[in-house]
Amino acid sequence: MFIDPHAHMISRTTDDYEAMAAAGIVAVIEPAFWLGQPRTFVGTYVDYLSTIIGFERFRAGQFGIRHYCTVGLNSKEANNEELAEGVMEWLPRFALKEGVVAIGEIGYDEQTPLEDKYFRAQLALAKELQLPVMVHTPHRDKKQGTSRSMDVCEEMGIDPSWVVIDHNNEETVQETLDRGFWAGFSIYPSTKMGTVRMVELLKQYGSERIIVDSACDWGISDPLAVAKTAMLALKNGIPAETVRKVTYANTLEVYGKSGQIQESDWLNPPEIDQRTLYEGNSILRGGREPRIEAPGSRKRDSLIIE
Amino acid sequence: MSEKPIDLLHHWILRQAKEQSAWFEERVNALAEGAPERELHMVMGLAPRLLGKAELALSIEDLSQANGALEGWQPEGLSIDGAARIVALTMYRGERPFAEIFKDLRRTADARELVALYRGLPLYPEPESLAFEVGEGLRSNMLGVFEAITQHNPYPRLHFDEHRWNHMILKALFVNSSLANIVGLDERNNPELARQLLDHVHERWAAGRGISPEVWRCIGPYAVEVGALDEFEKALTGEPREQAAAAGALARNPSPQARSLLAAHPAAAAKIAEHQVEQANISRNEVV
Question: Chains A, B: CB contacts under 8 A, how many?
């Protein structure tokens, strides 16, 4: 069983859901994010949040995958002050919806003053509502931006054990772990982490507070990244317990602090959920072995993502 | 004199909420006395966290009281948090028209909230003003939301015009939702619906697909009028469930044509009693 704790399923196809279920992914967390172009109305942002807490959750359930999300104002759109102010007004209501496991993904893009303002405002909201936080670390000036993200979390009085610092790499992981935060790694071709490098990191750092995700979205990315990393790690002699923690149990531990995600959701779903939101997991039902079965032949035979 | 439906619901929640009943009672009183709208949002959000998500425990007597308070109101299968959301919304005294408050809640609702909001339809003030909101719910792709409106709920029978009623029935068939739990199914039946369903039967047969045996119940009363006797004849020699359903529907059509068609298929007619037992079982398939 795997959980993909960072997957923008709203951008993915039903083939992906089928392949994920076949590969053993039982749950996904969909962070609110940037859609590839800016939203220009508060209302479109509201409807987006409403989709990820509503219809996408339902859609995932039809493939036997449990769907959770994080809500937040992403760093890019924080730079549109009018939009940002509007979104901040609506955000508290969304934060208390069923299946919302954190405030996120929030943080920095270009590290502007407006990004800083809304990052802090959302950390305050997370603290008030007692929710974990998923932090997006920037692509550019990454090392400094990652340190700064953690500085601000500490300044705002957030307990690091409630915060996942995501999109780590070899340069940022040591500090993230040393300061007591969770370290997310996004296995995303070309721009973020690859599976081979991830296996090396697991050899070096083990499983403590490390989380693997796919961050799959509208770009060239792989919804099977978590499952592929797990298989490659096992092939390379990483202990099964380590693999289980970084691809499943750690996610449950940190996001479970929200009270909105627990193992019984997919192992023993309430009848009412089975009728309305979740049609049951084909793997658990059929007792089949998980298998990597991506839709395109391009992906089918390779465990390597570069 | 029987109690109002909303008071019954309120009472059932308090009965079951145990140590959280004081919280709920205090919040509902505040809402009734003009607390700001954000207080309503908080109560809606906190209901499942504080009251849990268990099914509302209702006795046969409770259900009969429900029907006495509002004919056709079937609260079975409601959850305690869903019931609490309905009561909170109904008791809230805001400045704005009810439909606007409802719209705001619907726009930001998760699936469970949507189900609760729509199950509450028969209990709200200004029910006619919710026509647009109900349309949004009927168009939902989430089966649970659609069924919150269509099943165990007297609102459609009371407030839908014929066009909306008929499209509700057609969509129910399209999404494999049982017709048996639709309140007023026979009472609101009409020849236009029978014609639409006959077209539906033709379309399904042409595509080599099966049809729900439940369609015959709605076509039956107008079988002669819409020219469905040939189709009934085919169904009377179809698979057993279809035979039983078609025979049961024809048995309630008093026309000589229907009677002689049924008389010509005694094997199908013999299955009617069996089919009625099955119908009763379908009715147990509740939503929130």
Answer: 61
What's A244's domain CATH number? 3.20.20.140
Q: Nearest 5 degrees, angle CA A69-CA A73-CA A78?
A: 160
Is there a domain that residue A297 lies in?
Answer: no
Contacts of B40 in chain A (CB under 8 A): none
DSSP A281: -
Q: Tell the burial category of B34 from Cβ atoms under 10 Å away from its Cβ (0-12, 13-18, 19+).
A: exposed
For B110, which of A46, A97, A275 is closest by C-beta distance? A97
Angstroms from A169 CA to nearest CA on chain B: 35
Structural domains of chain A, count = 1
Q: If 0-12 CB within 10 Å is exposed, 13-18 middle and 19+ buried, where does residue A268 land?
A: exposed
Q: Taking the model in full, what pTM does it have?
A: 0.86
Rounded Cα distance between A212 and A5, Å, is 8
- Within-domain flag for A290: no
The answer as to whether A287 is a domain residue is no
Residue located via tokens 């049961």: B248
Contacts of B287 in chain A (CB under 8 A): 275-276
**Per-residue pLDDT tens digits for A215-268:** 999 999 999 999 999 999 999 999 999 999 999 999 999 999 999 999 999 998
**Tokens matching residue B241:** 């469930």
| Domain residue limits at A246 | 2-281
